[in-house]
Design goal:
Shape: globular
Strand content: 15-25%
Radius of gyration: 21 Å
Largest sheet: 9 strands, mixed, barrel
Helix content: 10-25%
Structural class: alpha+beta
Order of helices and strands: HEHEEEHEEEEEEEEH
Distance between the termini: 26 Å
Strand order of the largest sheet: 1-5-6-7-8-9-10-11-12
Number of strands: 12
Number of helices: 4
């Protein structure tokens, strides 16, 4: 039996940590009909095609207070989802016309005032707890048992070094800015691998041919191309989103990805990171997405996670990241203005933090 204090803590966590959003238009996960079979494409492969969403209020890592408990009770799930709905309703209220920028109330990201980049109209992190095989989950991570990333000392030292290097010159040029801000790849780990939900744009469209599986990522309009069969590219050929080679194991698509560019390394992983993903269609409206991260220099044990992707209404509209985007130009122009006035850009000595980094849902 869960202690009342723990349930209250979970509800408070949802209130303070989960950004608000409109309801993602997606089918509720439900058990497949008794006579349901995995559909096949015209060339006989399991059919994963469609538009799917992984938006959720469940976070990548588990609240430490839950220990090794992967599953939430239905009562805890209801409290979390109701707390999120309440917060969404509060944040969706109209802002008074005479409100000044410095007085802006809390926005979807939890910021206030000028720090508000978006309000609730623009974001969609989900409103429901992630369910996998019908079970409400306390975290996306399932291994280690505590649902926490098992970072090695070497990895932590490497991360601190990278952040220290970023404490000067954050605004010197575009190369110092995060990849998502530069429209290179998606924020956080949305484009993957692994593909994780973030603040908004958590949709994926899967298309298949006899030789390839293509995954269109809504965020930054990335496209992952999974080659079926064959060998990985040489180790020196680094690619955005890595080199993905897939194979079918019964009704499951298994994808092994290597050769990720170091700039895109998940949580500071090394160039030896190997990601294994498994896509299994388990009902007309759900795909079970599982992943495993192997990089002994970064994680003391292999890291595993699971998500339940739900069918969503399409199509996915284009994420036009560059067109009409004056943010990067404005950021750098502001820095040049500060320099001319003999001042340093505010925040120039702070570590660069990409939107969504360390905040995967």
């Amino acid at each position: 039996m869960t202690k009342p204090g723990l349930v209250l803590a979970l509800a408070l966590c949802a209130l303070t940590a989960a950004p608000a959003a409109a309801q993602t238009i997606a089918a509720e996960a439900a058990p497949p009909p008794a006579n349901w079979k995995t559909p096949r494409t015209a060339f006989g492969q399991p059919d994963l095609q469609g538009v799917w969403t992984n938006a959720t209020i469940t976070r990548l890592e588990r609240d430490e207070r839950l220990g090794d408990r992967l599953a939430l009770t239905e009562a805890e799930t209801a409290r979390l989802e109701n707390a999120t709905a309440t917060r969404n309703d509060q944040l969706a209220r109209p802002t008074a016309a005479d409100t000044k920028v410095d007085d802006l109330p809390a926005c979807g990201s939890g910021a206030t005032g000028p720090a508000c980049g978006y309000n609730t109209f623009w974001i969609d992190p989900g409103t429901k707890v992630m369910r996998v095989k019908g079970q409400p989950r306390s975290s996306i991570l399932v291994q280690p048992a505590d649902g926490r990333l098992p970072m090695t000392r070497e990895a932590l030292t490497r991360l601190r070094g990278r952040q220290g290097n970023a404490q000067l010159g954050n605004f010197d040029g575009p190369e110092r800015r995060p990849l998502g801000e530069r429209c290179m790849v998606a924020f956080g780990s949305s484009s993957g691998p692994p593909m994780l939900p973030v603040l908004y744009n958590n949709h994926y469209q899967i298309m298949q041919t006899a030789d390839e599986v293509l995954i269109l990522v809504e965020m930054v309009h990335d496209v992952r191309i999974v080659r079926l069969g064959g060998k990985p590219q040489p180790a020196g050929v680094k690619q955005w989103m890595g080199d993905s080679v897939g194979r079918w194991e019964a009704d499951t698509l298994v994808v092994e990805t290597t050769n990720l560019r170091p700039e895109q390394a998940f949580r500071g992983a090394t160039e030896d990171l190997k990601v294994v993903e498994r896509f299994t269609r388990v009902s007309p409206t759900e795909i079970n997405y599982a992943f495993e991260l192997n990089d002994p220099a970064t994680f003391s044990v292999p890291v595993k996670g699971e998500q339940g992707w739900r069918a969503a209404k399409g199509p996915i509209h284009e994420y036009a990241c560059h067109e009409g985007n004056y943010a990067l130009h404005g950021i750098l122009a502001g820095a040049r203005r500060e320099e001319k006035e003999g001042r340093e850009m505010e925040g120039n000595r702070g570590a660069v933090r990409e939107e969504g980094e360390g905040d995967e849902r």
